[in-house]
Amino acid sequence: MTRYRTSLIATIALLTTTIAAAAAGPANQAGADKTQVTETVRSMFAALAANDADKFRAVLAPDFYAFDVGKRFTGDALLELIKTAHAAGNVYVWTVNEPDVHISGDIAWIAYVNRGSITDASGTENVTWLESAVLQKEKGAWRIRFLHSTRAVKEGGN
């Protein structure tokens, strides 16, 4: 009877461990995907800040476009806008804060607060943008398909 009881306990323990590991797998992957989505957006901003076209294009889907400053931009047009601003002496700082990431299959969307600054000849202005993006997972990597940026209104004014 003791061997039977020991075998039964061992079998139950093995099944419990296997079930727990299987349940943790998808949760761990979801957490990893959420982190990767956020890091993909951060990588886009780092590439723009460095005028690095290759790194910028590496995180974009081929059909990427953005709505920013009241216009629609392709990836190349957005990169050119930032390069022109940099050439004029403007410096941008972008940070992704409070990311809210949702994933459904190979599609993800993220909403976040972008707190940063714009420095030009007149000085530095702290700026907050409310932004969102849609990403698609392709060959194991998240790529940005769409980005929307709206400058947040300052309290008590524009």
- For this structure, the quaternary state is single chain
Low-confidence stretches: none
What level of helicity do the residues show?
Answer: 40-55%
How many helices does DSSP assign? 3
Number of domains: 1
Number of DSSP strand runs: 7
Main sheet attributes: strand count, strand direction, barrel closure: 7 strands, mixed
SSE run = HHEEHEEEEE
* Cα-atom radius of gyration: 22 Å
Spatial shape: elongated
Strand portion: 35-45%
Give the mean pLDDT.
88
Overview of the structural elements:
The protein is an alpha+beta fold and 158 residues long. The chain is 42% helix and 42% strand. The chain has one domain (2-151): Roll (Nuclear Transport Factor 2, Chain: A). It has helices at residues 2-49, 53-58, 75-87; strands at residues 60-68, 71-74, 91-93, 96-104, 107-120, 123-138, 141-151. Strands 1, 2, 3, 4, 5, 6 and 7 form a seven-stranded mixed sheet that branches. A hairpin with a 2-residue loop joins strand 5 (107-120) and strand 6. The protein is elongated. The model has no long low-confidence stretch (mean pLDDT 88).
